[in-house]
Amino acid sequence: MSEGLLLPRTADPTDPLRLGVLISGSGSGLEALLQHQRSARGSGGCPHVTVVVISDKPDVKGLERAADFQVPAEVVPLPARADFDDTAAWRHAHEDAVDTVLDAHEVELVVCSGYMRILTERFLAPWLGRIVNIHPSPWGPDGALFPGAHGVRDLLAAGHPTAGASVHFVTPGVDDGPLIATEETPVGPGEDEDALGARVRVEIEHRLYPAVIDAIAAGRVTFDGDRVRVRDDGP
Fold first, then answer.
1. Could you name the CATH architecture of 17-230?
2. Which residues are catalytic, by number?
3. Could you say which DSSP state residue 46 is in?
4. 52-104 tens-digit pLDDT
């Protein structure tokens, strides 16, 4: 599964890895990442920096959050479907526009953070190993146990005892690329989709995702056959 994936260069605080973050909504995960970068800079440096935020939707909270941190943000909306003969051409046109922005900002790692578009194989091909996502579901042998846009809702409907979040490399499948890190938490009595989703975001996602990006930027993420290894350089 790791075949064809090319990791980004190893970076450090003097020459940080340049991130482009893709969003579609509130950007709470974006804010957690930007706050992590700001805090790390104040305590010795961060091996990555967000150089652009791209939203496929206008007027979302995530754009305001980017502005609060003085990070450039651009809206790249879907073009009118009627202007294209087929769905593939329509999707490719949008992704080409996204790629143009990523190239203009010399992005080295793409971070999907609540981005609700399924990316095509054509777009992903040059980014494999350099595009990551976090999904609100525990992980299984074939990818996220509850893939898709409603992971928390589907988990609750299935009566699964644990919720969680998983960071993975993005490949042409849906929430099934090589796993980098995952954490779980028991589902609380009476927790509904909103409450559980919010708790997973605060307790797991907002901490786990920046930590994984730290590891990628510092060169501590490697491939061992089809498995991803994360080296711990801590004490």
1. 3-Layer(aba) Sandwich (3.40)
2. 135
3. -
4. 999 999 999 999 999 999 999 999 999 999 999 999 999 999 999 999 999 99
